[in-house]
Amino acid sequence: MLQDVHTQKIAIPVLANLTGDNIIIAPVAGAWIYIHELMGDLDVSGTLQVKCGSVVKGEFGLDAGQGFTLSDESGEDNRPRLQCRPGESFILNLSAGSIFKGTVHYSLRY
Amino acid sequence: MTGTINDYVTIVNNVVKYVSPKVSPTVKSEYLDFMNKISHDERIYTDIGVTGLGMAEIIPDGGVGTSDAPIQGFTKNYVQMMFTKKVRLTFQTNFFLFESAGAKIKANVKAKVLEGKNAIEHAKNYLGQSLLAQGFNTAFTWVPINSVGTPTPISTMGADAVEYWTILHPREDGGPVWSNVVLDGIVYSPVFSYSALLAARRNHALKKMGRGEPMISQLDTLLCRAGSQTAQFAKTIKSTIDKGLAPQQTALFNNAPATDTFKVVEVSPYENLGITGLAWGMFDSTMMNQDFGFQYIETLATRAEPAIVDLLGNQDLVMNFNSLATMGASDLRGWMWSAGDGSTF
Predict the structure, then answer these.
(1) Would B55 be classed as within a structural domain?
(2) What is the mean pLDDT of residues B169-183?
(3) Helix (H, G, I), strand (E, B) or coil at A79
(4) Is B277's CB within 8 Å of A30's CB?
């Protein structure tokens, strides 16, 4: 049984190279952004914040090259790991000097 | 606009062609799926509530019971509005499109493209769902789709003088305020899901009548936008419940649903001021009556006025379709609503 519905999942590359907020997915009018998986690493150790708009969903201290994966919980069919409300961007916030490279798998819920 | 001959240059040229109507198929009066219809002969219809008695008491032998009486409730006036559709065609337009022996538009197509009654039903459908969608505020400006017509201010206040959807509805006896906005955990207006369905029914069960007594009501009908993900998901959840299974479980074989099934009512996607794909609400269909819920109050059903020719002026053909009706709600205790955006209340 589906536990939620959404559009097809879309995979995009992620390159967050600004100190502070990096908008990874801009808001989509009238839609939630469902984040199913975020993978990547920092080139130098630092702090990674995962945000929906101004709401911090998670904060992680990572070493240089430490692989990071945030993905849907197993058994939760179609239920996203993170939900950004309509009007909110999906944002990665980085501490000074770090670059996050990776991929994000997301969908939209209209 | 006035239809002048230059607006139809391709249709009226000397090439024989099939003129195909581009109109919606039959227009259903969707607002009657969630509104109670009242026929009324006066311009103003006034609704005033009155509570029942409070709970009885226990007294000792020889004691004197406390006096009680019903409490006068809240009042709302509904004023008839004029829904109208005017059609205006110049002399040549009418002649070459419809009247000439070589009329370009045949009678069956003419009936479809000049059907003012459908235009009025679209307006009523759109206004009806706009009341739902805009009900988090006390008023809004209604504008017909396609920029034909003038903006009209519309109130979205119930008899209790607050907006339709709020967490601050006053109670007749001055008791605690009540809410008809879905709250799932700490999230107001959740997107529709099984969890949100359960939340709506939990929220609804806590509502009280005017003297604090339980309302004893069940949300049995879900309303959402046709073709939306909300509608699609609602059908999945409903069908799973109908099978006796829990819509939230991956391993289905040993779980029963935690709530009852429901009916799904879908309204067309007029968009703009109408309900979004994310919005949804539920109501108790047994409370869709003159006492509770949305009212459609009609004085004049849609009437096609006699077509006239503007003989004193430019001889345009003018047709008018009119209806006198109004819509609104006094008491939305029987409803729960969610904007579906995770934040609005």
Answers:
(1) no
(2) 96
(3) coil
(4) yes
Helices and strands (DSSP H and E) totals, chain A: 0, 9
| Chain B residues closer than 8 Å to A87 by CB | 341
Residue-range definition of the domain harbouring residue B317: 5-10+27-50+72-338
Rounded mean pLDDT of B146-169? Answer: 94
Chain-wide mean pLDDT for chain A?
Answer: 93
Question: For position B106, what pLDDT does the model report?
Answer: 84
Q: Closest partner residue to A86 among B245, B248, B341, by Cβ? A: B341
Helix, strand, coil in percent for chain A, rounding step 5: 0, 55, 45
pTM for the full predicted model: 0.91
* CB nearest to B341's CB, from A5, A76, A85: A85
**CATH (domain of B310):** 3.90.1690
Is B178 a domain residue?
A: yes
- Number of independent structural domains in chain B: 1
B305 occurs within a structural domain: yes
Give the residue carrying structure tokens 């606009």: B1
Say if CB B5 and CB B99 are below 8 A apart: no
Residue B16 lies in a domain: no
Which CATH number does the domain A10-109 belong to among 1.10.357, 1.25.40, 2.60.120, 3.30.1490? 2.60.120
Residue B193 with chain A: CB contacts under 8 Å: 3-4
Give the pLDDT confidence of B93-123 residue by residue, as tens digits. 999 999 888 888 888 888 888 888 999 999 9
Q: Which residues pair with A12 in a beta bridge?
A: A104
Q: Are the Cβ atoms of B278 and A110 closer than 8 angstroms?
A: yes
The CA radius of gyration of chain A, in Å to the nearest whole number, is: 14
For residue range B188-233, list pLDDT tens digits in order: 999 999 999 999 999 999 999 999 999 999 999 999 999 999 999 9
Its ipTM equals: 0.86
Q: Do B278 and A86 touch (CB under 8 A)?
A: yes
Name the residue in chain B with its Cα closest to that of A88. Answer: B341
The span from the CA of A70 to the CA of A106, in Å, is 12
